[in-house]
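REVIEWER CHECKLIST
Item 1: Sequence provided? yes
Item 2: Single chain? yes
Item 3: Sequence as submitted:
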Amino acid sequence: MRVGMIGAGLMGAGMVRNIAAGGHEVRVHARTPARAVGLPATPVDSVVAAAEASDIVVLSVTDSPDVLEVVAQVASATVPPPVIVDTSTIAPAAAREAAGIAAAVGAQYLDCPVSGGPPGAEAGTLAVMCGGPDAGVAAAVPVLDLIGDPAKRVHCGPVGAGLVAKLVNNLLVAVIAAGTAEALGMGQRAGVPPEVLARVVQASSGDSWQLRNLFPRVLDGDHEPGFRARDLRKDLGHARDLAGAPLAVGDPVAALFAQVDGARDYGAVARLLMDLPDPGGEA
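Item 4: Structure as written out by the authors:
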């Protein structure tokens, strides 16, 4: 297959490597061209060049306006791709708008947001939440199988449903990360080291993916970005819009994340709630 890739950032680069390793020809367009250097793909200087006569186009960009702009450019190709797979996390309403743009030129748009971070993108083990028609998902399977674990792929429903599922997940990510930090901080101030508390909780009913996978780095003061705080803030905004009403738990958590340096990993929320080392020297 000929695959056009739009985006080569923290997530897109790993996707490119896995799609190419699967034997497909990849053309990649990156807004920052340096990000495409060294990838097993042909860099091109425009979205249209990546999309032209491709069998499938994959998007990994930042937010709703970016997706709508890119999909409009994809649709302007002389020979648009039959399938567009959007792995970005955006508003479900924007996905439905993008699907309309694609449908006008005979293309199927799928919202396929992913979970698993850069390590999952590199390993090809991402969880993929698909929204869109059955035929479109079936056509995208050869690529979806390479960027994610088929056992963790769920077809959630029509266009937009994958994003609803992703926003549910990311609201939980934020709540669990902040709640874990607050609980460990409480215990730390009461005299029990957080490393000890983490071992106790991992053997008990408070265990979580966050505690096992995020907090080992958090406790070391390592906040190098995997999932940046600013991106989680963006997703929390979409979740709030989706809810259409105040979130009793989500809104206070979002207020906490508003205080975190957006360039750091979202685990840096723990700095507001715990006493942590900082290899970077910040107090």
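Item 5: Key structural point noted by reviewer: The domain at 2-158 is CATH 3.40.50.720 (Rossmann fold).
Item 6: Recommendation: ____
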